[in-house]
Design brief:
Structural class: mainly alpha
Mean pLDDT: 83
Shape: globular
Number of helices: 3
Largest sheet: none
Low-confidence stretches: none
Order of helices and strands: HHH
């Protein structure tokens, strides 16, 4: 939702983006690659949901997007 904090709503907007459903959040192109692997896909939404639930998140070394905040 581009609010700065990772929430389940961010995962929802990411899935809507992947499915081509409008409207999507303006920050999806910038912040939705939650695991820093390049493409924006459902795996990123899963990473966001895991983060929100307090579960481990697998991401690329040096990836800083899942440290608590999306910008």
């Amino acid at each position: 939702d581009c609010g700065g904090t990772v929430t389940a709503v961010d995962a929802l907007f990411t899935l809507k983006y992947v499915a081509g459903i409008q409207p999507t959040a303006a920050c999806v192109n910038v912040a939705a690659d939650a695991n820093c692997d390049g493409p924006i896909n459902a795996v990123d939404a899963l990473a966001m949901l895991r983060f929100v639930a307090g579960l481990p998140v697998n991401h690329q070394p040096g990836c800083s997007l899942m440290v608590g905040e999306l910008s």
